[in-house]
Specification:
Number of strands: 26
Radius of gyration: 31 Å
Strand order of the largest sheet: 7-6-8-5-9-10-4-11-12
Shape: globular
Helix content: 25-40%
Oligomer: single chain
Largest sheet: 9 strands, mixed
Distance between the termini: 60 Å
Structural class: alpha/beta
Number of helices: 33
């Protein structure tokens, strides 16, 4: 009780009496020969029987590579954030960071760590210290070496008269350098071990003395005020703590890479026995050369250099940057955006403009100006799906190529999503020791390149330029291992999020928290949407404002319809709304159509396309899309019908997306005379495709408006007859029903309340006509308005509206509550300090860290709450050849009878190919009556993991396959389908229709 009731105000006043310590002059030429044999005898890297690396050598390597990171990789913005606790002095921030890197592994000078290699422990025993066998330290797992480093740092400051609670702020950064965030109970147990177990002051003080010698030596070398009586280190706000801690992880990763920092010969005496006595340490000059060579081998990307094009006016800049012909003119919104960036230097921009109106070019041009003005490292462009991300990657690459033409440089880029190996454009850039894309002559070390090191787990956002799925942003708000490395990937960039409306309540919880973190870091953010509900706009604005320490905007401070196009900004000037005069809009009609079967849909299309034309049907579920495809194919034939949904193998889906752009993209030379695409929602976001006619299942109004962005998207003069009118028909089963009936699967995907609001508006108007840009904002606002203030639909529908509203609110609350379980967020988040790293960040279990197989698939924490949550790799088995494993059926490839060498570690070089055979299964389709969805996920994943067919395949040990669920399916006699029974259901996969589940 006494601890709880201590006088915190008195403690705070004592801290304020202590001044911040003065920094001593650094002595970078200090080498390890200055240290005692005791300090030099501890091992950090064990190597083989002939090699090792001492703790002090590893600490020097890490400190020196940290200096390289600070000088050559971190953005000016990041360095200023680190310096903010030192009154903006970057030299002090650099010395602090370098010291932390040079101290991070001093805890390896402990018996709990040293006992792991009995051969190298002999070096320590020769100095008179006791090191037992590993099994003689049963509790060693509770006192990890990073926590020993943390406690030793704090102890060293306090023992010399420095203030302890502030020292803890900085010491914690050492304790989390492996990306693990212990909880308070783990810290308490570790402290007890540190104070009482083997290696403690009570047991043998020489362990602590060795750590003290190492820390003091490193502080002198770096010029850090470790020994400063009656001083207090500055407190660390969580944003600043994260800036240091995240960069520290990277410094350790680089210094631990044995290809960059070669191990050294083991110390042996004349008789061949291990002995540290007389062991030659690197001189200062040799160490500098070692670090420079390592940095060159690492080939770490430098921040993007942005050319100054201030001499160009806005029109010229857009034409120059995006390669437009002289006849092209920037839209008013594009011109206004650059004027805003120049005048306001905004922290947050929310751009709302019609589909196909050039928001991408607007965002990239704005980001370029923000990068130059703020000294940022690069850009992160986030999109809702892998398909839209791939499409954006090509556009960003073209933009970068134009930048490199003005400012030659070697520029790192990453495509950040799980199927990036399928993107040929990206794979061409994977680092082969040179830059494969050259944009000007005269220097072989310039151009775009992609680093394989950067592409590995947790690192994919660290390149200066990243194009990825929005998951990479959302994961910054998920309690998980190395979450701060994800933060590092965002800290020095402009963040652009396209289709920001495309997040459900579950995803939005993470997005809002991520925006608060971005606000705390002062990272400029550009949000793009064609159909953003007013309430959602308010939430996004306030999430970022909270990170900046600003009070929330009230609903009264901003009208629902603020104009369209419109750019909302947060800057030093405050919150502002910039209304823009919209460009002329192609008139589009949204019309209810009564059809109650796929066959009637096919008949309607046959009549509408009698003279040719290209139509798209958007169904809300895969099953309904497959059923509709069968009906349409029966009328149009397979050559004139395409099926598109998310339940194809990744390699197949990639090919279908490419084919969509080839047939229906801008300036297509292969547009078919007559064709029908049957699709799910995958077609509605960011794919630059154009159709003459659209049919769609009902959906929330903003999504219907998003879908019509693919209707008459391009200016084409060859449309036939009625197809000159842009018409979108909303499919309704029964127009006489109260309310109207519609497809059975829709309510499992979307809120019934929001779908009924769309139908209510259609019923009131007869048809909805989008004539001008403001209509997008007006219709979205009305659909999402309070049902009492803005009723929609006939009076007879209102009871159904009320019931649907109640269910909608319950579902939203449940989704938010589910997301919050692992969300790195609290009401007082902006006031967090460094100690919260020990209190709030724990969550390795959230993403199945340290587990494999079914535990990964069934993880409770994710940033999406969608339907397809069981990722598998599909392999075919041929019963006619004794069930040998083969590649699954893939379009455009001959039937592959080559046996898959699963008994080989790398499957005879086909492991990467196997990774392209991925697909996600829908757990709801396997659920039995009374079974919770989580139970279904567990059961299905476990059944696949335990499959005796694949259990002993050697290739599963390969890093790319380790932990993956491999689903073996039996090939049919004609080779066109593969099938399997799983959890009481039959699943079938074919090139034509993808995955089907029958129960």
């Amino acid at each position: 009780m006494a601890r709880k009731n201590r006088d915190l105000s008195k403690e705070a006043s004592l801290i304020t009496e202590f001044p911040v310590p003065a920094f001593p002059v650094a002595q970078p030429d200090l080498d390890a020969s200055e240290l005692s044999d005791l300090a030099r005898c501890f091992w950090a890297k064990s190597g083989d029987s002939n090699t090792w690396l001492s703790v002090v050598q590893h600490l020097m390597d890490t400190a020196d590579i940290a200096a390289k990171l600070f000088d050559c990789y971190l953005s000016e913005h990041h360095r200023n954030l680190m310096a903010s606790v030192w009154e903006g002095d970057q030299a002090k921030a650099r010395a602090s960071f370098v010291f932390l890197a040079g101290a991070h592994d001093c805890g390896k000078a402990s018996p709990q760590f040293s006992c792991q290699r009995q051969d190298l422990a002999q070096l320590i025993r020769h100095q008179g210290l006791t090191v037992l066998r590993k099994q003689d330290y049963p509790d060693r797992k509770y006192l990890r070496h990073e926590l020993v480093s943390q406690f030793a740092f704090q102890e060293e400051v306090m023992s010399s008269g420095g203030e302890g609670s502030r020292a803890r702020h900085w010491a914690i950064l050492l304790g989390v350098h492996h990306g693990r965030y212990p909880d308070a109970q783990a810290i308490k147990l570790a402290r007890e071990q540190y104070a009482t177990q083997e290696g403690s002051r009570e047991d043998d003080p020489r362990w602590g003395q060795a750590r003290s010698e190492i820390l003091r030596w490193m502080a002198k070398r770096c010029g850090f005020p470790l020994i400063a009586p009656k001083t207090a280190l500055p407190e660390l706000p969580i944003a600043v703590a994260s800036a240091y801690a995240s960069a520290l992880v990277i410094a350790d990763w680089l210094a631990s890479n044995e290809e960059y920092f070669l191990l050294r010969p083991r110390p042996v005496d004349a008789e061949g026995h291990l002995s540290i006595d007389g062991y030659p340490e690197f001189t200062a000059e040799e160490q500098r050369r070692r670090v420079q060579e390592a940095w060159e081998r690492a080939d770490f990307p430098a921040p993007m250099r942005v050319p100054d094009l201030s001499e160009l006016d806005v029109e010229e800049l857009y034409r120059h940057r995006f390669g437009w012909p002289a006849s092209y003119r920037a839209t008013k919104a594009q011109r206004t955006a650059l004027e805003i960036v120049s005048a306001e230097d905004p922290d947050l921009m929310i751009v709302e403009a019609a589909p196909g109106s050039g928001k991408t070019e607007l965002a990239l041009a704005s980001a370029e100006a923000l990068m130059r003005a703020r000294g940022l490292q690069g850009i992160f462009v986030a999109l809702p799906t892998q398909a839209t991300t791939n499409a954006m990657f090509s556009r960003v690459k073209s933009w970068l190529t134009n930048i490199l033409g003005d400012q030659p440089q070697k520029l790192g880029i990453q495509l950040a999503h799980g199927k990036r190996s399928l993107n040929e454009s990206f794979m061409e850039l994977i680092d082969k020791g040179r830059s494969p894309l050259e944009v000007y002559d005269g220097d072989d070390d310039n151009g775009l390149y992609a680093s394989t090191w950067m592409g590995q787990r947790w690192r994919s956002t660290l390149s200066p330029v990243v194009v990825g799925t929005i998951d990479q942003i959302l994961l910054a708000a998920l309690k998980s291992r190395h979450v701060l490395v994800r933060h590092l990937g965002l800290m020095g960039k402009v963040v652009v999020i396209d289709e920001v409306h495309a997040s459900d309540e579950f995803m939005s919880t993470y997005l809002d928290a991520a925006l608060t973190w971005l606000g705390m870091y002062g990272i400029p953010v550009v949000l793009l949407s064609a159909t953003l509900p007013p309430q959602r706009r308010m939430v996004l604005l306030n999430a970022y404002r909270r990170g900046k320490g600003l009070s929330a905007l009230s609903e009264q401070s901003i009208e629902d319809v603020v104009g369209y196009p419109v750019i909302s900004t947060l800057s030093a000037r405050g919150f502002q709304i910039h209304q823009v005069v919209g460009e002329p809009e192609v008139e589009k009609r949204i019309i209810p159509l009564q059809v109650d079967s796929p066959e009637k849909i096919a008949g309607f299309l046959d009549r509408e396309l009698a003279d040719g034309g290209c139509a798209v049907i958007i169904r809300n579920t895969v099953r309904e899309a497959q059923e509709t495809y069968d009906a349409v194919k029966a009328v149009f034939g397979r050559e004139q019908t395409t099926l598109l949904h998310a339940r194809f193998l990744a390699v197949e889906r990639e090919e279908r997306d490419r084919r969509m752009l080839e047939l229906f993209g801008k300036n297509s030379a292969h547009r078919p005379q007559r064709h029908v695409v049957v699709s799910t929602q995958v077609v509605e976001q960011s794919l630059d495709v154009d159709f003459d006619l659209m049919l769609t299942d009902p959906a929330p109004m903003d999504l219907v408006l998003q879908r019509i962005g693919r209707l008459h998207r391009h200016n084409r003069q060859d449309r036939q007859g009625n197809l000159n009118d842009a018409r979108c028909f909303v499919l309704v089963n029964d127009l006489s029903a109260v309310p109207w009936g519609y497809s059975h699967g829709t309510d499992s995907v979307y809120s019934r309340y929001l779908t009924l609001r769309t139908l209510g508006a259609l019923c009131d108007e007869g048809e909805i006509v989008v004539r001008e840009p403001i209509d997008y904002a007006r219709l979205t606002s009305a659909a999402y308005a309070n049902p009492e203030s803005t009723p929609l639909g006939p009076k007879e529908w209102q009871e159904d509206f009320a019931d649907a509203w109640k269910v909608d609110q319950q579902n939203r609350a449940q989704a938010k509550e589910k997301a919050r379980a692992w969300c790195l967020e609290e009401e007082n988040l902006p006031s967090w300090k460094a100690p919260k790293l020990e209190e709030k960040f724990q969550g390795n279990a959230a993403t199945g860290e340290g587990t494999s197989g079914p535990a990964v698939a069934a993880t409770r924490a994710a940033v999406r709450d969608g339907e397809d949550q069981i990722p598998v790799l599909v392999v075919a088995m041929d019963p006619e050849q004794g069930n040998i494993p083969l590649a699954p059926p893939i379009s455009g490839r001959r039937e592959d009878d080559q046996r898959l060498a699963v008994e080989e570690y790398n499957a005879h070089g086909r492991v990467r190919e196997m990774c392209t055979w991925s697909i996600s299964l829908p757990p709801w389709a396997f659920r039995t009556r009374g079974e919770e969805l989580e139970q279904t996920i567990d059961a299905v994943a476990q059944e696949i993991w335990d499959d005796p067919i694949t259990k002993d395949w050697v290739c599963r040990q390969h890093p790319l396959l380790s932990g993956e669920l491999i689903l073996a399916m039996y090939r049919s006699f004609d080779g066109r389908r593969i099938t399997r029974e799983i959890h009481g259901h039959t699943i079938t996969y074919s090139i034509e229709k993808g995955m089907e589940v029958q129960g």
